[in-house]
Specification:
The complex is a heterodimer of chains A (786) and B (571).
Chain A: H1 9-19, E1 46-52, E2 56-68, E3 71-79, E4 95-99, H2 103-111, E5 125-133, E6 140-144, H3 148-154, H4 163-176, H5 178-185, H6 201-207, H7 218-226, H8 228-232, H9 238-249, E7 255-264, E8 288-290, H10 305-309, E9 350-361, H11 379-392, E10 398-405, E11 408-410, E12 418-419, E13 429-432, H12 436-441, E14 452-467, E15 476-482, E16 491-494, E17 498-503, E18 506-522, E19 529-538, E20 541-544, H13 547-550, E21 559-564, E22 577-582, E23 585-589, E24 594-602, E25 605-619, E26 626-633, E27 638-639, E28 643-648, E29 651-669, E30 694-698, H14 707-710, E31 716-720, E32 724-727, E33 731-738, E34 744-752, E35 758-769, E36 773-782
Parallel strand pairs in A: 9-10, 10-36, 11-36
Antiparallel strand pairs in A: 1-2, 1-4, 2-3, 3-6, 4-5, 5-6, 7-8, 7-9, 12-13, 13-35, 14-18, 15-16, 15-18, 16-28, 17-18, 19-24, 20-23, 21-24, 22-23, 25-29, 26-27, 26-29, 28-29, 30-31, 30-34, 32-33, 33-36, 34-35
Helix pairs in contact in A: 3-4, 9-11
Chain B: H1 14-26, H2 40-64, H3 74-83, E1 95-103, E2 112-115, E3 120-126, E4 132-136, E5 141-144, E6 149-158, E7 160-168, E8 176-178, E9 196-200, E10 208-209, E11 225-230, E12 236-239, E13 252-259, E14 277-278, E15 284-286, E16 291-292, E17 298-301, H4 315-327, H5 335-343, E18 348-354, H6 356-359, E19 370-377, E20 385-393, E21 398-408, H7 410-420, E22 429-432, E23 436-448, H8 454-468, E24 479-480, H9 482-490, E25 507-517, E26 532-533, E27 550-551, E28 556-560, E29 566-569
Parallel strand pairs in B: 10-11, 19-22, 23-28, 23-29
Antiparallel strand pairs in B: 1-6, 1-17, 2-5, 2-15, 3-4, 3-14, 4-6, 7-13, 8-12, 9-13, 11-12, 15-16, 18-19, 20-21, 23-25, 24-27, 26-27
Helix pairs in contact in B: 1-2, 3-4
The chains are: A alpha+beta (786), B alpha+beta (571).
Amino acid sequence: MAKFSDSNYDILKTYFTEVIGAGTGIPDSWLLGPKKGIVGEGGVYEILWEDNPQRGFVAHKFIIQDIDGNSFNMLYGGLVSTHSLASSAFEVGNDFYFRKDSFFYEYLAQNNPEFRDYINQERTFCYFGKIWPLSDRAGVWNIEFYGMKDYMELAIPTHNRTPRLVEMMDVWFDQINHEPYNMTKYLWSLLDAKEVDLRWLEYIARIYGIDINIELDELTLREWVDYLVYFLKRIGTYNAIYIVYKVFTALSTNKLNVYERWDEWCQKGAGDIPSFKEFPNFFPGTKDFHWFEFYNLPPSGGAGDTWYSQFNPSGAPTPNPYTIDWDAYPTHTLIEPSCSMVSVAPSGNLVITPHYIVEVDLSSEPIGDRFGDDWILNQFYADELVRNWEYARPVNKYVQYQQLISPAAAQNRTGDPENLYPLTSLGYFNTAFTGSQLLSGGAPTPSGGEVAFTFTQYGGSSIWTITHELSAAHIVAQFWTPASGPSFYPMKRIIPDTVIETSPNVLTATFGEPVGGIACIAGYIPTISFEYHQVAPTNPWSIIHNLGTTAPSAYPVGSVANFFDLPAPLDKSYPETVEIINPNRTNATWDGLETGEAFIRNADYVHTQTIASTTWNINHGMNTDGTIIQCYDSSKQLVEPISVVLTDSNNTVVTFETAESGKAYMIYFKRDVIGRADCDNITNMGMCPGGFGYWVVGDGGIEEYDPYISNDLESPTASGDYWRIWADAETYYIDFIVPTGEDLTIREVGLFNIEGELMYYSVCSELYKPSDVQTVFHYRSQILVD
Amino acid sequence: MTNEFTPDYLNIDYNTYVARFKELLAQSDVYRDFDFEGSNISLILEMMAYYGDVNTYFINKVAKNVYMETADIYECVNRLARQTGYEPKGVRGSRATLTVVVSGSEISDGDVLSVRNWKQVNSGRSTEDGDSIKFATTAIQSVTVSGSSVTIQVPVRQGIVTRIDGYTGDDLIDNELLLPTDYAYDDDLDDYLPTIEVTVNDAVDPWERVSNFYTNLIPPINDNVYMFVYDRYQRNKIQFSSSRNVPVSTDIIDVILLDSFGPDGNISADTSADTWTIEDTGFIENETTGLPVSNDLITLSMSAASIGGDDAETITEIKLNSQQALRAQFRNVTENDYNSNLSARSDIVRATAWGEQEYAPSGSIELYNVVNISVIPEIWGTATITTSADTLTTDWATSGSILHPLVYSSAWEQELLLYLRPRKMISAYEIFVIPDLVYFTFNIGIRIKRLASFIDVKTDVLNKLIYYFRAENQEFYSEMDFNDVVEYLLDPTQVSTDDDFPNVSEIRNLNLRDINSNKFIYEPNDIGNYPYWTEEASTVSLMDNMLRVIQLGLNQFPILSDDTVRIYQEE
């Protein structure tokens, strides 16, 4: 008895005649995907696989020409396989197959679910028929179908095979009976996870007492079921935990961490004095040791070297820069210690406990990348990990499941966010240092008798509304924007179209187009500034300010001036010339008689350009965060440069249209004299463990949301205290734990200081935390360096 | 047996169907007097019976193949075996060790030579079908020349090297690569030598073959792994896994295999008439000069028969082996798990493990989750367990070869911990405890049969005693019952693999006159003093003291001080 075709005749005939029937199709064209190109005019290639005993499975291209009874006549289109055994010279009489990734399978599965039971569509190859040459048609081959209908017809004596009987038998055996026949034939596939219909796959898993989730990627799920026995033979071991992680995270580059928990032998003191260590004592705590430590292996992962250095097998580095109590992997106490003083201090005698932690460090990549989606960890996979890890947990052990994520941040002035993940990732975890507004725009605290203010405009805007709270009648302001790229320097001076003090302490600058940057504003200080009132119309103004004689000697001789129309200080006005007559007198000339006010402020630095040049390279060395600069030519007349660029905090480049000599007068701005004394040090500004400051997570985080304005998360869902904050020379580390207890979908995170000011705001792709899982955040914020 | 229902789960054949059909039709009014022979209706009747017969065949087949014990279809047996965690084996090539001698002008003292892999040698023998029996190297082996020639023991496997190049990721379907069926691929995974090599994109390091995809999952992990399996359709295929790495469509996959003769490749040791020839160039390369050594400077011989060649496992073999696999675990839970896992290493003879149950049944925090492990190494020394010399003095002799284990080599201890870690239960604390060797020596008086040679008997008794105390025949924490020793010595059926101790049969009477140990033997106690007598001295007479059973401690291992054993002839 010849081998039956796996498909029935009717399906094959329909497929070849009505679906990819011969015609004048495009050579080498292919049909791909469900419901694509289902056209009769196509005439496309079908890939058929020759099962050659010597060569293995070899792929060839064919185009159907016609169907003559059981003969499917095909035009040979050439060899597809490229391996060394492949040959286009296939052998007559060899078996030909469809492969599982062929369009034929697509046709069956996607377009015709009613054919589901006619062919086992999970088998890697589906037998079609044997190939025979056609003597009268060059290049055309006959692939011969043979099925149950043919076998049964042979059981009928030849003289009884009437057309009607044959037709009836064809209908019965090919179109009706083929379905139960196929199901019977693959009864034994019911135990093969690779070949069983997906409808029954879970029954195989249940042989092992494992429930599966059919929503998992199909091939992964089938392999998981196929190898379940090897998982079960390892349950209770680290290996079993790792298997689940590998299977359900699809080769993620994130790391799996397992910690074994140790605890003090002596748990309680005399009487009712409780244990000195609360229990359970997962982070924060120092008695949980990375599984690697026992084997003297240093763990690593996306959370960074600093995080993992606390699990250095030999303990904390020497010297320990973080003053955190990190222990080397302990030795199991084998001699009973004295516990008499346990209520006072730990005995230091450790024993291993039945507790352990399973943690996924999500800091290397969003797991969603592996599935072509934009989540860090979604509910499905978060739940599946825990559910399957539970199969591996010994009944007498206690496990804490945990996520670890280590957002990247940078303490900067611009509030530009940092992304934890590469830009190529589909998911993201962006963190902005929202405390930047405190660096530059908080309530000014005069220091050393100076009043100055730096305002930062985050994001481009054509209107800057500056609340400076200088409470000064007159001010001097200049505006700067990053000259290129996201970095702070170089900054170039920009001149607003208008600058109006719209109300006391509120200045409004308008620009022709949206722009971001900083505004440097200097206010009145009696000893170094002077207010001039010109009540009667006069031209020129002769302003005798005497700043040259009254200013402290530390201040260089020279000043900057600003002029205002009356009623001052609402509108700024511009004289035709401004001339420094001497250190104590400045003249302004107008094109007519003029009233108004002038504000003269002594300069903090004076640059003298003795050689005329179009470029003045000013190395002022003030280490300033910004400046106000005015330039005067050799005739002591105020001149406007083409451009002024702050190349860094100590250098400024001024460019003129023509070569000039003269002087430049500059005002010093530095954040430590303009704002909060400790705002550059988060450890001293109320973001500390122990109730100082707090974290909040939420499920908002839409793109349009502006945390600067609201000083809050868009949709807060949980909050708590910090666990620890510490720093090394370059980085602040802010750690906290979102505890177990509730399911949370985290899409935004806010870190607040003790005053409730939002210091960091993170917006991220979905990070799902099941209720029985805790999430450890380990923020790493680069310290601002000027 | 439970297979009585097979193959007659449904015992109706074609003729029975026809007969029953006719019989029942004849009872109806319509067909009461109908003569079916030659009629049109008989056509349908026979066709239905025919189909019923086919159905019956299927039903019986299904019934038989539900259970492993009665299954008779390879496809089903293979699948049922895999359910238990057993991967049925395909053909296995014979393996042998060739003695390779290299000499001549192309090598010099100090040169480093390497025997290259996948090089074929011809044994000069043939199968019954006349095919040459060839062997091949499958791993690279390096040696340094000392003098003017070098002799290398080269392990080889029987088979013809078969290379299939240029597969791509597109040749994979469901992460599987089906291989041509005409070859009998060497499928041996038990041998330490590889039988297959899979490389992707000409990488220097081939991918690693694993027995299942959950092995070697301890970081740092090599995810470039594959399985080479003999599937339920009796086809060889290379399998990759989505949980490890899978070549993508642009990757080029090259495969080297051995086409083996299976059992027909098992050949005897060389006779003087046998001559081996090297079939490939570059069999040996001189790494120092960078040149291949000419084949005519190399001589090959095989002093022991090649073994291990076998056909693909039969249904019966799979059934037997899968039962054993069902019980095997990849985790260390019991003492047996530790012992078998550690003893599988070539550098360990015996191992034991114990925990709270044995140590402190009353319960104590100090022993929670602690697994104490002790091992007997194949070779004592700084590479394993350092020892100091001790002495054992008896009334009749003194031994200077007593070893006193001191400390594990830290590197070896770490190596063992790393070896154990894939199977360590979570939150178990494994520590290695120094084994305590308890030496015994005996004063034995024997009376022999009249015509026997005392010297011969003495030699065999001593050899049998040495064999009895060989480490692989002893266990930690054992009871040393000297009646057992006597019975063993006198039992002629107790023999070793290479010595039958025939002269033991000449003993008329054997008495253990004195027993000495290097340890103090405590009286029975429950405070952990080992070794101890299991019976109080007061319960036995003084004359019987020597036969009291001795219980060794958890880390104590019995060993024979053979150079102090005294065997004398009693009148």
